[in-house]
Design goal:
It is a multi-pass membrane protein. With 530 residues, this protein is an alpha+beta fold. It folds into three domains: 10-143 and 316-336, no CATH class; 146-297, no CATH class; 350-525, Protein Transport Mog1p, Chain A. Helices cover 52% and strands 15% of the residues. It has helices spanning 10-15, 19-33, 35-44, 55-68, 82-101, 104-123, 125-128, 132-137, 146-170, 191-195, 201-214, 219-227, 229-251, 253-263, 266-285, 293-297, 304-308, 318-336, 370-376, 413-419, 471-485, 505-522; strands at residues 176-178, 181-183, 188-189, 356-357, 360-364, 380-387, 395-402, 423-433, 440-450, 453-463, 466-468, 490-499. Strands 4, 5, 6, 7, 8, 9, 10, 11 and 12 form a nine-stranded antiparallel β-sheet that branches. Helix 5 (82-101) runs parallel beside helix 18 (318-336) and helix 11 (201-214) crosses helix 13. The two termini are 56 Å apart.
């Protein structure tokens, strides 16, 4: 585990003395450089969905020590450390980009690559590359990007709701499903309640990963244990919904409140773990070597303390010296260079939105309930009805403005509308033009329906004067805007109108087009451009 030639001069040998010292120095430098990412993780771990996060580094360390037992101490030279330095450069570049853009999740991603780089530098490529399982496991401590989280959670909520209703129908409990709202007649399971069991998806995914790593058997067995986590969690949440419905139908509301609170706890997690053990037991029964479940899982933990002491055997190397000095110098430089402050532009609050917009009369509809406001997480928002004499149906205007969108997901009606029971019958980007400025842009045009009710929806994202129909393009504009002018503000604009029973889409579209042009004239006061 050393690559120090005996021909080095005394000066060079002095700089490369004590490999453990350089390892600890590199770790300390990384702690400073990646601290923004660590701080972001500490905040995310306070959320119920990611409360398992603090356990992930501990479990990864245990996986590493278990695997280290199979690697003998190498007292000879190691000549393939430099791939680790290359990975370190990538890790530093990723962390630096995250700090520059003030997107601290990216800094945390770079930290995981740094861990992999240090293992490659310490053990060399031939040995270090086999330690990928504990490094990959660190991914489970990361919060999902906002857009991915909202999309995934909404999809899984829908699946859980559908299955829960199916189970209730099997036991003859009257139930009606509207989006993610499960109507039991005298009691409704709202979206948030229906999805609460899904907060255990992430720890179950981590547990199934460890399960697959520890399992000694065919690769397809490992793969099955790994990918079964999500279906098991969704299944158990559906069972929770079905039991709640059964209790309401037979015992009333008083009983279900206590049950819901109890079953939202670790009961789901423990049940999922037991199902994973049962699945592993079934897989063991299918094997020809007739081993027991305990032997197949390889739960041996003896000697981990001895392996931890091997940190004192880390040999000095130019690669480790490079890692320590590179990250250390960058960490100090970042402390010395003044941070670029986020620029907050002057704007008028939506409370000053005019009561008339062109020929339209604007009537504010008040505020959302606190639960919706928490999910929306907007710094300012407007909900208003636009009406005009002679126009049969009003146009609902919704605008949400975010002072700093860099740390959150871009909200999309594609996520929230199905959750409220609306079915998206058609969704396409279309070209539009701001007739006042002549600027062309794209917006999303959707037709949604709930039973016999139909609505036409326009929505787009406002990014400092740029309008787009794509939330990914909006995120890109946000990043570029941060680099160009230090701004992180963003907004989403939505116009909705109901279509009468005999009304054509063209008629409703003309109504939206007219109101949109009048709104675009007023919008810059409240959603500033460049």
């Amino acid at each position: 585990m050393t690559d120090i030639s005996r021909s080095h001069t005394p000066i060079v040998s002095g700089f490369l003395h004590w490999g453990t010292f350089w390892l600890l120095l590199a770790t300390l430098a990384a702690a400073v450089f990646y601290w923004d990412g660590v701080a972001e993780l500490l905040v995310a771990w306070q959320l119920p969905e990611y409360s398992h996060g603090p356990l992930i580094p501990v479990l990864s360390a245990l996986l590493f020590l278990r695997q280290l037992k199979t690697v003998p101490v190498n007292h000879g030279p190691v000549h393939d450390r430099w791939p680790g330095v290359l990975l370190l450069v990538i890790a530093v570049a990723l962390g630096g980009a995250g700090r520059l853009l003030e997107i601290h999740d990216i800094v945390a991603y770079g930290l995981i690559l740094w861990v992999g780089a240090i293992l490659l530098i310490s053990f060399g490529w031939d040995t270090g590359k086999h330690f990928w399982p504990p490094v990959v496991h660190l991914v489970y401590m990361l919060p999902l990007p906002g857009a991915l989280y909202y999309g995934l959670s909404t999809y899984l909520q829908g699946v859980s709701s559908e299955l829960g209703v199916y189970f209730l129908q099997l036991i003859s409990v009257p139930v009606f499903l509207e989006g993610n709202i499960i109507d039991l007649g005298v009691y409704k399971l709202q979206v948030a309640e229906a999805c609460s069991g899904l907060r255990y998806l992430f720890p179950i995914l981590s547990f199934s990963y460890i399960f697959a790593v520890l399992y000694q058997g065919p690769m397809w067995h490992k793969a099955l244990l790994l990918i079964s986590a999500a279906p098991i969690t969704v299944f158990m949440n559906s069972v929770r919904i079905a039991i709640a419905g059964f209790i309401v139908n037979h015992y009333g509301l008083d009983w279900v409140e206590g049950f819901t609170h109890f079953f939202e706890g670790w009961v789901i997690f423990i049940a999922c773990v037991l199902i994973l053990f049962a699945l592993a037991w079934v897989l063991v029964l299918l094997r020809r070597d007739k081993v027991g479940l305990i032997e197949a899982l390889d739960l041996e933990t003896d000697g981990l303390g001895t392996q931890a002491k091997r940190i004192g055997l880390v040999q000095p190397s130019k690669a480790m010296l490079t890692a320590a000095l590179l990250v250390g110098c960058l960490a100090m430089a970042w402390k010395v260079i003044p941070e670029r402050e986020t620029v907050f532009v002057e704007r008028e609050p939506f409370t000053l939105f005019p009561s008339s917009v062109g020929d339209w009369r604007a009537l504010r509809l008040g505020s959302f309930d606190p639960q919706v406001e928490r999910v929306l997480a907007a710094d300012d928002y407007l909900v208003a009805n636009l009406t005009q004499p002679g126009v049969a149906e009003p146009v609902e205007l919704f605008v949400a403005w975010y002072k700093d969108q860099s740390r959150g997901g871009v909200h999309s009606p594609e996520v929230c509308l199905p959750g409220a029971g609306w079915e998206i019958a058609a969704l396409d980007p279309i070209d539009a033009t701001d007739e006042t400025t002549g600027h062309a842009f794209t917006l999303n045009r959707a037709i949604i329906q709930k039973g016999v009710n139909r609505q036409l929806v326009y929505y787009w994202y406002e990014q400092q004067g740029k309008r787009t129909s794509s939330m990914f393009t909006a995120k890109l504009h946000l990043l570029l805007g941060k680099l160009a002018n230090g701004r992180n503000d963003s907004a989403i604009v939505r116009l909705t109108t109901r279509m009468g029973a005999d009304e054509t889409v063209a008629s409703a579209e003309a109504r939206l087009q007219e109101s949109m042009q009048d709104v675009l004239v007023r919008l810059p006061r409240f959603v500033p451009g460049l």
